[in-house]
Structures are given as structure tokens and as C-alpha cells.
Hints:
The protein is mostly helical. Helix content is 76%, strand content 0%.
Amino acid sequence: MNGKKLPGWFVAVEILILFLLFLMGDAIVRLLHLPVPPALLGMGILFFLLATGIVQPHRLEVSSRFFVRHLVLLLLPAIVGVVRLGSVLEKEGWKLGFILVISTLAVLLSTAGIARLTKKEGDE
């Protein structure tokens, strides 16, 4: 990020923006009784804002780096939950593994396709 040192509260402001997008998604889900997780709808709103240029990607760069750096801590509760369900994993683990592989491939392929479609000439 240009090598500039930003104030410490900058991450908090960016996270607040992301949280407000989540709250917007939550309000829409509750209002319209949609069978969609509010966080997913909030990410959809963020994608729309980024795709239309209303929000520039560099405006959320600091918080993005923060979340990537602390991803393990954010996923720790989910990991603990999986470990506690060892008996379920013994019985149904192959199904979960299959679903994980297929969904991961779907995400990778769709991301690559979207990146290829949206790549501008001259981009590296």
C-alpha cells in the first residue's frame, strides 16, 4: 500500500464498513425472509460495490491484510467444532471430504473464469 504508514484506527474503520455491509445483508435477509446467510448477502453487496466501482479495492486493503494475517484465529472455533465431532467424521467423513473437494474445485474454477473474463488488456 504505497509504503505509507496509516493510523492504527484505520483498520477499525475498514472493519466497521465491512460490519455495516454484514448488517445490511442481515436486514435484507430478515425483511425478505431469504434462505441465505446474512454474511453471504453482505459479501454479495460488497462484490457489487467493488464491481461497479462505488468502492475502490484499495479502500479495504488494510483490513483485508489484517484478516488474512489472522485467518487461523478466525477459523479456530470451526476447527475445534470439527475435532469434537470425531464420531460423525468416522461415519460420514468421506461424504464431507467429497463435498469439500467438489466445492473447492467449483470455487477455484469459477474464480479463474471470472478473473479471465474481467482481465483488462495490459494486466499482468
